[in-house]
Amino acid sequence: MPLTVLGIESSCDDSAAAVVRGDRTVLASVVEGQTGLHAAFGGVVPEIAARAHAERLDHCVEAALATADTHLRDLDAIAVTAGPGLIGGVLSGVMLARGLAAATGLPLIGINHLAGHALTPRLTDGVPFPYLMLLVSGGHCQFLAVEGPDGFRRLGGTIDDAPGEAFDKVAKLLGLAQPGGPTVEAEALRGDPRRFALPRPLLDRPGCEMSFSGLKTAVLRLRDDLVGAKGGLTPQDRADICAGFQAAVVEVLAAKTARALALSPAPTFAVAGGVAANGAIRAALQQVAQAAGATFVAPPLQLCTDNAAMIAWAGIEQLSAGMPPEPIIARPRWPLDSNAAPMLGSGKRGAKA
Fold first, then answer.
1. CATH (one of 3.30.420.40, 3.40.605.10, 3.50.30.20, 3.40.470.10) for 4-121+302-351
2. Is the pLDDT of residue 348 over 80?
3. DSSP string of 44-75?
4. Lowest-confidence segment of 65-69, 280-284, 342-346 by average pLDDT
5. The domain over range 129-301 is classified in CATH as 3.40.50.2000
6. pTM recorded for the entire structure
7. Which residues carry a binding-site annotation?
8. Annotated binding site for substrate
């Protein structure tokens, strides 16, 4: 019989639980977002997110088990996100998982949230190892050579803001609703990407490192210049800024993807993470992969953003590979490639990425 694992995810502002089988069947995937709770603050408030997780996670687990028509006694293990993420949310999930494991005697597996994203193409498309992955989300952006359930070699990534973070900040600068990714993308569809010349950071440097902080600052200055000259922004100004910003992000990601494929040729190039839901980014990356002779894989949109199915699957990967469970410690920082030099610095809590 295939393994059946309950997954629990609470690293940011989505409370999620899922039941997944080892034959790649997602029996249930429940995600409760918190957008309404944070809307008035222009971004995710960690304390509010943690409290919401504590209130909702057990209901998510109940709903997932009911949808899957599965009881706790039918499970082979419980997998939970143990980091990286907002520590209050991570703790909420870890404590719930510990309680369930103690009550049932089930094995408990701590999963790196980034590994969940990185292994998603194996859940959705059965992609064999090795493959090249671009993990691009609200808090992370890095190229990974995925060589096994615990084999991740980082080729490069952002040295400051992640693209999703830049989308959110640009949306806030322009008075658009959060989360910024979907709203900026929608505005960009009405805009002219050629009207404003925005920078393409680090394209003149070799390698796969990226930077998006300067692009965000350029948008801020452009907005201020327009407001100063005209007394405000017209709807077309806003749409054109969004189109120019998105075009810059797309060009950077596409160019760096081409370099990553040249540095580490792979039969498959996959993309995952919340920003992978952006249609323009997907289309550009698919063209780059095809030009390099690689198969392009992008998970369904509901499995690009944070979810617990990817956590359950990562647990199944570890169990199937015979990897011994490690002590579960809730971690705000947890690099996938521990051998790579930190891209964003390090501190008492460890490397950021």
1. 3.30.420.40
2. no
3. --HHHHHHHHHHHHHHHHHHHHHHTT--GGG-
4. 342-346
5. no
6. 0.92
7. 113, 117, 135-139, 168, 181, 185, 278, 306
8. 135-139, 168, 181, 185, 278
